[in-house]
């Protein structure tokens, strides 16, 4: 059985957004040590309880501090961005922070799959 973690960088107690993001990084490192298959982050805006607002930036950092766990974004607010910008941000983050043969993932939304082809790896 392959297990994954979706971490939304919650602000627990009086934690600051910076502390929440540090906890996300530590959880990703632990997930890799514990043998988890994937570690997912997501994008949220205007939330008083979640700090994850830029998954492409966070994934670049997670790639630099882990070695083999698959990392990906479980949520990007695609209607708010140009599809080209999202693809370029993730491609740029991937090439800048990751090692060769590193696997990144993102979820293919149902509405995207309805109109476009989603590769089976999504």
Automatic annotation (TrEMBL):
GO terms for cellular component: cytosol. Residues 1-90 form the Luciferase-like domain. It comes from Bacillus safensis. Transmembrane segments: none annotated. This is Luciferase-like domain-containing protein. It holds the Pfam family Bac_luciferase. GO terms for molecular function: oxidoreductase activity, acting on paired donors, with incorporation or reduction of molecular oxygen. It comes from the Bacteria. InterPro entries: Bact_Lucif_Oxidored (IPR050766), Luciferase-like_dom (IPR011251), Luciferase-like_sf (IPR036661).
């Amino acid at each position: 059985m392959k297990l994954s973690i979706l971490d939304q960088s919650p602000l627990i107690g009086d934690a600051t957004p910076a502390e929440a993001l540090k906890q996300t990084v530590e959880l990703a490192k632990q997930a890799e040590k514990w043998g988890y298959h994937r570690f997912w982050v997501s994008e949220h805006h205007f939330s008083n309880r979640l700090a994850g607002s830029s998954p492409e930036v966070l994934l670049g950092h997670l790639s630099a501090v882990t070695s083999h766990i698959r990392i990906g974004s479980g949520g990007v607010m695609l209607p708010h961005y140009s599809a080209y910008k999202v693809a370029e941000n993730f491609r740029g983050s991937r090439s800048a922070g990751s090692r060769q043969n590193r696997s990144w993932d993102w979820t293919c939304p149902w509405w995207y799959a309805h109109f476009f082809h989603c590769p089976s790896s999504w």
